[in-house]
């Protein structure tokens, strides 16, 4: 999968703080879509306890972010909002309500739900005007069970093409934290088409907190760079301040990323 990064390892949050610009402001609303099947307990717990670290790295790099949460795949339950776009602390509280009793994983429908596009949907995400929308899915299964009575106007299911079109319509970035080759295949085209990356779910599916914190730090650092890259390429986008950090200002962060790249260089090729 060309130019997609599969990240592990540690990058210093202090390095990112040094790289940030005091006047930078990129406005981003980020919705996490989390699989609620039985195998996702560790992932959910680690996401909940490390959202503060993730948020702090974005903030230090000049991103004004809010966080929303969709749970999907719970047995007999359609994708649902656990919390509207809010602070990291409120996100962590809401994430305690994630379930682990699902047997299907309708990820494409979850994407439509996160963009307020399921027919008859009453829980709507309150995106800020002009915000950079960023969707991130966490799952260990391909999208399945997307058939429903009210998915998108004129249809009874949400397809890969539907999800792709919606991400395009909303000019949203898309990232995926995945495990397994079939799962990666299910989402790889969305990642490639919407400026994202695939990350290894195993970095969160563990009780080793050193591994988890290293993963979250690397994940947030990559997300920060992706956001800055977007605004460098699209400086007139309303979400992007005229004070976006210059590409050279991320050089300090690159020093931290160098060690990460050297450690995991060999892993990238298996997902291309």
Topology:
Elements: H1 13-19, E1 26-35, H2 41-60, E2 63-72, E3 80-86, H3 88-95, H4 107-114, E4 132-139, H5 160-169, E5 173-178, H6 181-193, E6 198-200, H7 209-233, H8 251-264
Parallel strand pairs: 1-2, 1-4, 4-5, 5-6
Antiparallel strand pairs: 2-3
Helix pairs in contact: 1-8, 2-3, 2-7, 4-5, 5-6
Structural account:
The protein has 272 residues and is of the alpha/beta class. It has eight helices and six strands; from the N terminus they run αβαββααβαβαβαα. The chain has a six-stranded mixed β-sheet with strand order 3-2-1-4-5-6, with helices on both faces. β5, α6 and β6 form a beta-alpha-beta unit. The longest helix is centred in the last third of the chain and has 25 residues. The N terminus and C terminus are likely disordered.
Features:
272 residues; alpha/beta; six-stranded mixed sheet; 8 helices; 6 strands; 39% helix; disordered N terminus
Q: Sketch the topology as an H/E string, one letter per element.
A: HEHEEHHEHEHEHH
Number of helical stretches of at least 4 residues: 8
Biggest sheet strand line-up: 3-2-1-4-5-6
Structural class of the secondary elements?
A: alpha/beta
- The overall pLDDT average reads 83
Q: What's the story with the biggest beta sheet?
A: 6 strands, mixed
Shape: globular
Unreliable parts = 1-23, 247-272
> Any idea what the radius of gyration is?
17 Å
Helix fraction, binned, reads 25-40%
Strand content: 15-25%
**Overall number of strands:** 6
